[in-house]
Amino acid sequence: MAEQQAGRPGPFLLQTLIESLDSLRLLGRRSLLALLGIAVGCAAVIALLNIGHNAANESIRTFKGLGTNTLVAIFPHRPGDDRPGPTQLDVQALRTTLPMIEHIAPLILHSTHIQHRGQTLNNHRLKSVG
What pLDDT, in 10s, does the model give residues 57-68? Predict the structure, then answer.
């Protein structure tokens, strides 16, 4: 039985180390395979954490590359409202009011549902005008 330290529960550190090494020597391959499994498992966890961290950084970099200087003006159509959206924007007034705008490109987005033989598809069309 392991000797106890005075005032502390449990065996001495040296005695624990000696018993561990004796177990490794006596059990041979089984101990070696267990240690190899532990090492491979730890390496796999570290690799997965690193992959997740790099993926998060890459996605943040991608979204930053999109820029926060994109302004989208939407003129939604309201059901029951027969007034059409604006067909022209005053680009000069927009540039005067917001001088940091570099490019202006009008876009038209049209979405619809298509049904054919019991299947429904969503159709989205984006058109650049100008």
Answer: 998 888 777 765
Contact 122, 111 (CB under 8 A): yes
Longest dimension (CA), the chain: 92
Strand spans (E) along the chain: 107-116, 119-128
CA atoms within a 13 Å half-sphere pointing along the CA-CB vector of 78: 3
Q: Centre a 10 Å sphere on the Cβ of residue 104 and count the other Cβ atoms it contains.
A: 13
Q: What single-letter DSSP state applies at residue 100?
A: T
The 10s digit of each residue's pLDDT in 13-36 is 889 889 888 887 888 788 788 889
Give, as one character, the DSSP assignment of residue 2.
P
Q: How confident is the model at residue 55 (pLDDT cuts 50, 70, 90)?
A: very high
Residue with token string 């202006």: 104
